[in-house]
Design brief:
Chain lengths: 115, 112
């Protein structure tokens, strides 16, 4: 069984740039969620994708967007980067269905630094 | 907006001591999960509790879900240095599509 993988591990960008982060879901999982974890905080939900459609979103602006592909891998895109976007970005995969307790399995994260 | 408050925020104790971490909310959750996160890594799922009043044990760790499904606790018996890490509680709403609501976490250090 393959776990959740993310790339790149670290990334440095400047304010105003755009960034794409990638995630490969755990084998057999059909749902992917993205979280932002600022230093010293718990993860905050950005959005969730199921069957290539966004089906849930947290309190993040539209410049945060995503994609899910037929093989259930996923991308997180952030446009017009701001300094406050500096954080650890976590991808989590899960299996939708009943019973579903929304147990999510996280990747190691991508550390984004915006200068 | 659902919020989860974790306490204490920081805890440093000696090896062999017992400790309890609390996770409280004014909202009802369909399930609650506990994760442990080490520096530079993603959170690792420890346990999921679903039923009000449920108690689950994982070796020296005991997890409890409140009767009203608004709060939870994690109790560690005879803590060891390997227990050091960030412990996060996360609540799931009924719909599942809203993602998990995380607390800020408890930074636990077990000194040898």
């Amino acid at each position: 069984e393959t776990g959740v993988t993310q790339s790149p591990t670290h990334l440095i960008k400047t304010r105003g740039q755009q960034v794409t982060l990638r995630c490969s879901s755990q084998s057999g999982h059909n749902t992917v969620s993205w979280y932002q974890q600022a230093l010293g905080q718990g993860p905050q939900f950005i959005f969730q994708y199921y069957r290539e459609e966004e089906n849930g979103r947290g309190n993040f602006p539209p410049r945060f967007s995503g994609l899910q592909f037929p093989n259930y891998s996923s991308e997180l895109n952030v446009n017009a980067l701001e300094l406050d976007d500096s954080a650890l970005y976590l991808c989590a995969s899960s299996l939708a269905g009943f019973p579903s307790y929304n147990e999510q399995f996280f990747g190691p994260g991508t550390r984004l630094t915006v200068l | 907006t659902q919020l989860l408050e974790q306490s204490p925020q920081f805890l440093s104790i000696q090896e062999g001591e017992n400790l309890t971490v609390y996770c409280n909310s004014s909202s009802v959750f369909s399930s609650l999960q506990w994760y442990r996160q080490e520096p530079g890594e993603g959170p690792v799922l420890l346990v999921t509790v679903v039923t009000g009043g449920e108690v689950k044990k994982l070796k020296r760790l005991t997890f409890q879900f409140g009767d009203a499904r608004k709060d939870s606790s994690l109790h560690i018996t005879a803590a060891q240095p390997g227990d050091t890490g960030l412990y996060l509680c996360a609540g799931a709403g009924g719909g599942g599509a809203d993602g998990l609501t995380f607390g800020k976490g408890t930074h636990l250090i077990i000194q040898p």
